[in-house]
Amino acid sequence: MKILHIIKEFTESGAADTVIEDDTGMGHDVTVFRLKEDKDYDKLVDLIFSSDQVYTW
Amino acid sequence: MSTLGILVNSDKYRDEVLGVVQAAKKAGHDVKIFIMDDGVLLGNELCGDIGTDAEVAYCDHSAQPKGIKEIKGALAGSQFQNATMMHEADKVVVF
Amino acid sequence: MSDAKKIAVLVQERQGEALRMALGLTLADDKVSVFNIGMQPIEANDENNLNVESLKMMDVPLYSVHEADSEFENTVMQVVPEKLLEFDHVVPY
């Protein structure tokens, strides 16, 4: 399964880290897109529509 | 053509929402936006930026207590519009 | 509406708005589930209590990593990621 995690900002609970680590550990194709570091929105939209599941943290 | 749903529940990501909307339109996707919570604080600026590139609705229940009487270019709605957007969208992102 | 989607609402910092939104999402006949994965149990106040009660009446599955959330099925964070894989949309709030 192709899973995209979009990281907007740090979350206090650390839930994003747990989900990303577990998705990766389960063998899924995980992509992490950090909004503060990467402003390539064309690439982001491509990733959104080519992924099976999208999280925005 | 696919539909991107964007839930805007914060007033911190104006540039990011605009960037994603424009990129999605360029790629041939439909874009629907629902604004609620603190997102209503940038509703008017956002709608001005976006123009006709997206169909926008907002939660009037969020807007009224924050003193926002209208978001020009957007439908004054309720959580029903959010439910409809999520139902119709192929992908959803949150800003 | 046909072709119900499966939507997971992840409650984090803004509990009240997350619960209000989750309840609203049932209006399109989608299959909504709620996971409280935030740092705190759901605060007991009139609005949250009403929303939780309404979600239960709508048969919305409620999960929480906090035992204090007595209206929720208790879970642990370690099993949440696998549960989330079945959803069309995951909405962290």
Poorly predicted segments of chain C: none
Q: How far is the N terminus from the C terminus of chain A? A: 19 Å
Q: Radius of gyration of chain A in whole Å, from Cα?
A: 11 Å
Derived structural class of chain C: alpha/beta
Kindly report the spatial arrangement of strands forming the biggest sheet of chain A.
2-1-3
How would you briefly describe this protein structure?
The complex is a heterotrimer of chains A (about 55), B (about 100) and C (about 90). Chain B is α/β, with parallel strands linked by helices and about 100 residues long.
Short descriptors:
heterotrimer, B: 95 residues, alpha/beta, Hypothetical Protein Ychn, Chain: A, five-stranded parallel beta sheet, 4 helices, 37% helix, 25% strand, C: alpha/beta, 3 helices
Detailed description of the structure:
The complex is a heterotrimer of chains A (57), B (95) and C (93). Chain A has one domain (2-56). In chain A, 37% of the residues lie in helices and 28% in strands. Chain A contains two helices and three strands. Chain A has a three-stranded parallel beta sheet, with helices on both faces. Chain B is globular. The mean pLDDT of chain B is 97. Chain B is of the alpha/beta class and 95 residues long. Chain B has four helices and five strands, in the order βαβαβαβαβ. Chain C has 93 residues and is α/β, with parallel strands linked by helices. Chain C has one domain (6-92): Hypothetical Protein Ychn, Chain: A (3-Layer(aba) Sandwich), CATH 3.40.1260.10. Helices cover 30% and strands 23% of the residues of chain C. Chain C contains three helices and five strands; from the N terminus they run E-H-E-H-E-E-H-E. A five-stranded parallel beta sheet of chain C has the order 4-3-2-1-5, covered by helices on one side. In chain C, strand 1 (6-11), helix 1 and strand 2 form a beta-alpha-beta unit. The longest helix of chain C is centred in the middle third of the chain and has 12 residues, at 46-57. Chain C is globular. Classes of the chains: A alpha/beta (57), B alpha/beta (95), C alpha/beta (93).
